[in-house]
Amino acid sequence: MSILPKCPKCKYEYTYEDGNLLVCPECAHEWSATEYGNEDESVVKDSNGNILQDGDTVTIIKDLKVKGSSSSLKIGTKVKNIRLVDGDHNIDCKIDGFGAMSLKSEFVKKV
């Protein structure tokens, strides 16, 4: 029995093969085995595909609602000195006026 990689999009572990492609039943993401075969699992990419690292500065690309607050994070908000973590929200940071936050890398772009 071969061990298939986790889904690169949602990290779901029970993927399956469909011809030449691997498929995630959780999020329906399809990819080729060679497309993500050499990639380290801990690599975090922004919305444009740039690799993010601890200490980078990023910009928010979409207005984001903040749970427990009546205000939202506006597009173009600059976030300095990010810290990468494991999980669904893979960026920890501090934003002026909001405090400590967790963001998804798909909603930011590297400056």
From TrEMBL:
The lineage of its organism: Bacteria, Bacillati, Bacillota, Bacilli, Bacillales. Residues 44-111 form the Protein YjdM C-terminal domain. Coiled coil: none annotated. Belongs to the YjdM family. This is Alkylphosphonate utilization protein. Residues 4-32 form the Protein YjdM N-terminal domain. It comes from the Bacteria. InterPro entries: YjdM, YjdM_C, YjdM_N. NCBIfam families: phnA.
